[in-house]
Amino acid sequence: MPHYDLVIVGTGSGNSILDARFADRKVAIVEKGVFGGTCLNVGCIPTKMFVHPADLASSPAPAGRLGVDLELRNVRWREIRDRIFGRIDAIAEGGRRYRIEHEDNANVTVYEGEARFTGYKKLTVRLADGEETLTADQFVLAAGGRATVPEIPGLADVDYHTSDTVMRIDELPRRVVILGSGFVSAEFAHVFASFGVDVTVVARSGALLRREDEDISRRFTELASRRFDVRLNRRAVKARRTPEGVALDLEGPGGAETVEGDLLLVATGRRPNSDLLDVAATGISTLPSGHVVVDEYQRTEVDGIYALGDLSSPYELKHVANHEARVVQHNLLHPDDPVASDHRFVPHAVFTSPQIASVGLTERDAAARGLRYVTATQEYAGIAYGWAMEDETGFAKLLADPSTGQLLGAHIIGAQAPTLIQPLIQAMSFGLDAASMARGQYWIHPAMPELVENALLALPLDD
Ligand SMILES: Cc1cc2nc3c(=O)[nH]c(=O)nc-3n(C[C@H](O)[C@H](O)[C@H](O)COP(=O)(O)OP(=O)(O)OC[C@H]3O[C@@H](n4cnc5c(N)ncnc54)[C@H](O)[C@@H]3O)c2cc1C
Ligand SMILES: NC(=O)c1ccc[n+]([C@@H]2O[C@H](COP(=O)([O-])OP(=O)(O)OC[C@H]3O[C@@H](n4cnc5c(N)ncnc54)[C@H](O)[C@@H]3O)[C@@H](O)[C@H]2O)c1
Q: Are strands 3-9 and 130-141 parallel, antiparallel or unpaired?
């Protein structure tokens, strides 16, 4: 039974831990799928590489409002797909070869197979040609999560897709039905609709992206309903095969109805892989959500076992997994001087149309916590760059503590929202108050960040 100083499970963010400082340790990396994990292969990166051409394809409508007549003549789906995966697959394979072949990794053994704990600090890997059981002083569990598929009668018998498969299809479908109304749904609805596909979105609740601040979610739902066939407050009761593809029988406020598509995308969330890894067998407990329990140093309850990323983090975001991987790396190298993860101001962005970005508390959160807060909303339509774009729908909404001026939350829907929000994340992270931020620096005129400047100035802070 080979024994290691360190075993890492998962080559998403887990793969970034090893560097020259680990050269004197005997290390194993275990990966059951493709090197690079979710973000690189089936997540953040390919989706955004589809979003960019989708943004271009959807530009005739906004351009037309400005007097520029553009025409979308064709979408060469296979070319788009192959450009994206031509880059990504090569990066994934390069990462794999680096770990297996490069002299930098002379101390590293790669096990390509599925790992599961079979005892205390005992990990069994199912390899192509049998099993190997490894023990180690330390483990890093970075096994991520997987798409969940709800139990809907008939669903198992239809050819549905998840985000794992939908980006590799051979032909663009004519009609897509998307079940779910979170991040994946919002991003793929935009991509497909921009490429000329009829999109139906089926949502359980009364709004799309309902975890966003209510004003953002409401605005997005309004705008999405103009672009897609949005069915709110619907329960999917049955899935059926049809000659063209798939039908979903729904129940909703108006009774029973059916939506049909050539392709069904199930986008109903993800769960951590803690069950398949059988973390309980080594004495690690999980939350009801399946997330591995860790402390602020990313330590599990078992001495020497750390966990990070989607396996243990409710955020399920790559920048959080990366941050936690850096924390684990530091704590492995400096056990006597550990650092804690900083989850105070975790931002996110949804790369749909319009783009959405958010950090900190929503108004719902602030009210639920009984905080004293003020808000300010600045429309894109009220800044010069917004006039240039003829933007009538975007806005930034800020929440602040009126007595200190500290920002509590920031939410933006509109062009470049993920970029515009970054100075607000910075202000919150470093404790810069709204008035100092607004007037302590120049804001380039007439650039888009004037949206943020004006929103800051509009906050009704105490004198
Ligand atoms: C469609 C989509 C779009 C996304 N877009 C964004 C975005 O724009 N921005 C953002 O911040 N986040 C985004 N995310 C989320 C982001 O991809 C994840 O938060 C991130 O990849 C998690 O990293 P991780 O290292 O924790 O896990 P992963 O990257 O999932 O890595 C886990 C690795 O462990 C391997 N593994 C699992 N179990 C075992 C086992 N038992 N044995 C061996 N190996 C195992 C897996 O094969 C995988 O390679 C997106 C996710 C999806 C699905
Ligand atoms: N831009 C980004 O950062 C980005 C993009 C895509 C995905 N992600 C990450 O990937 C994760 C997964 O994304 P997602 O959109 O699948 O999850 P999500 O949690 O954002 O949304 C899931 C949706 O499915 C619905 N749902 C759940 N169970 C259902 C059921 N039984 N029937 C009908 N609807 C149901 C929920 O109400 C919700 O609308 C997210 O947590 C997110 O962090 C991030």
A: parallel
Is 184 assigned a ligand-binding role in the annotation? Answer: yes
Q: What is the CATH number of domain 3-147+271-333?
A: 3.50.50.60
Instruction: Say if ligand 1 is within 6 A of residue 310 CB.
Output: yes
> Which CATH architecture best describes the domain 155-268?
3-Layer(bba) Sandwich (3.50)
For residue range 112-147, list pLDDT tens digits in order: 999 999 999 999 999 999 999 999 999 999 999 999
Q: Ligand 2 within 6 A of 355 CB?
A: no
What's the pLDDT band for 374 if we cut at 50, 70, 90?
Answer: very high
Q: Find the mean pLDDT for residues 305-321.
A: 98
Quote the ligand 2 centre to 148 CA distance (angstroms): 9
Matching CATH topology for 155-268 and 354-458?
no
Q: Given this model, what pLDDT does residue 193 score?
A: 98
- Told to judge if 445 belongs to the known catalytic residues of this protein, a careful annotator would answer yes
- Ligand 2 centroid distance, CA of 63 (Å): 31
Whether 277 is in the pocket of ligand 1, judged by its Cβ within 6 Å, is yes
Interface ipTM: 0.98
Atom 27 (ligand 2): residue with closest C-alpha?
Answer: 268
310 is in an annotated binding site: yes
Give the number of the atom of ligand 2 that is nearest the alpha carbon of residue 150.
31
Contacts 24+ apart (CB under 8 A), 152-157: 152/236, 152/237, 152/238, 152/239, 152/248, 153/237, 153/238, 153/239, 154/238, 154/239, 154/240, 155/239, 155/266, 157/239, 157/241
Domain residue limits, the chain? 3-147+271-333, 155-268, 354-458
Give the residue whose CA is nearest to atom 28 of ligand 2.
268
Closest CA to 412 of 426, 427, 429, 399: 399
pTM above 0.90, yes or no: yes
Asked whether residue 463 carries a pLDDT value surpassing 90, the answer given is no
Q: What's the one-letter identity of residue 186?
A: A
CATH of 354-458, one of 3.40.1080.10, 3.30.390.30, 3.30.1440.10, 3.40.190.290: 3.30.390.30
Minimum-distance ligand to the CA of 123?
Answer: 1
Give tens-digit pLDDT for 227-259: 999 999 999 999 999 999 999 999 999 999 999
Is ligand 2 within 6 A of the CB of residue 182? Answer: yes
pLDDT band with cut points at 50, 70 and 90 for residue 341:
very high
